Structure formats: structure tokens, C-alpha cells
Amino acid sequence: MKNIFFCSLIVGLFSPVIFAQNLSKEFEQIYGKLDKLKTFQFIVNYSSNDTLEFSEKGTVNVLVTPDGYFYQTDFCEMVINKEHTIIINDEDHQILYSKNEKLENKDQSVTTGMLLNQIDTLVTKADSIYFSFDGLDRVYYLRFAHQYFDLVELRFTGEMLHQIDYYYNTDFVGNKGLKARNKIIFIENPEYNSRILRTDFYFVEKNKMIIPTEEFSTYRIQQSESANSILE
Fold first, then answer.
1. How far apart are CA 119 and CA 111, in angstroms?
2. What is the pLDDT of residues 8-18, one digit of tens each?
3. pLDDT at 6 (0 to 100)
4. Residues 64/40, Cβ–Cβ less than 8 Å
5. Are 20 and 126 in contact (CB under 8 A)?
């Protein structure tokens, strides 16, 4: 009862503007922490049900290192290193690649901000923001009018965001109680195999021809501008 009273008092004393400022500081602290780390990893387990009949679950893995970036989903991987952007489609056994001619372009596009940018922009788009404690979690409630999600809950613990709940607006989906969830696992200085970041793990150039390595001998390789467009 005391906790409920305390949270109610906090909500009554501080305006949504203050909560928005505090939420912005949460993200600033996260970016500051990530900028000090040479290597880190995000594992995002997501689930959603856009309708009562359709639901989806999966995992996105993001590894950031001094040698490049490795993204892994349930159906493909992407590598961004100094030389190439490489997309490995495991379902179609196809590798798309493009040359990274400008390193500055890559560095500006794949930053710590890119990892959380879409979440960060919710702060400026929310119609109202409120805050409460839930055990050790710091919870921010973002309300939206006339948007696909009418409520988004951001849960922070320690120095990191660890869960996001999106509640669908019934005006858009037609069913009550539908939501999506992202559970975020953050790992500092993770162990990883450095070869997954090297181009020669996937293909090599011989006699001016691009040839897949033995590991990917069954994959078709194609140069594509669509891979490089990810960096724009």
C-alpha cells in the first residue's frame, strides 16, 4: 500500500515534461555506456500478435566490435566490415554483397544510436509520458493518440533498457488486448568468433571471379547495390 501511495504521489507531483526529460537522460546514459565499450551484444527476443489468429516470435542478435558489425535474425545474417556489406540469406542459399567504398558512410550509419534510435524517437512522438517503479524496474508509460500503438511501456533496470511492451490501438487492429513485446539481453565484451566478421569467411576473389568458400559452397553470390543501401 505504501508503494502504491508513493507512486501515486510521484505521478501527481511531476509533469509529463519532467518524465520525458528523465527518459531522454536514460537513453543518454545508455549511449554513454556503449560509447565506452569496444565490443558489446544485444539479443532481442520479440513476440507479437497483430490479430487473434496470427502471432510471431523470433530473435535478433546484434554484435558490435572494432572489426565490424554482425546482425543475425531467424532467416538471414548481415555483416558490415571495412570492405563489404554482406547479406547471407540462409533460406534461399544466396549471398548479396556490396563494397563499402567510404568507411565514413558505414561509421555514421551503424552507431550505437542506430540500435536504439527507433525507441528513442518515441520520446518526442508521445502525447504524454508517465513514470512509476515496479520492483527494481523503472517503467515509463508512453501514450499515443491515433497511432498504431496507443501505449508503449519501457522498462529499465540498472543502466540498461531490458523490456518494451507495445499495446495495439483497437482502432487499427480491431481486437482488444493485443500487444508486442521485446525482451532485451545486453552483454558486455561477449565472446565471439572473429572469422564471422571477415569477408574471406564467405567468399574470396580468384582470377577476377568471386568464389564462395567451402563453408558456403552451395550459396549463390551476387553483387548488389541493395546491400549497400542499408548504409545510406
1. 14
2. 333 433 445 67
3. 37
4. yes
5. yes
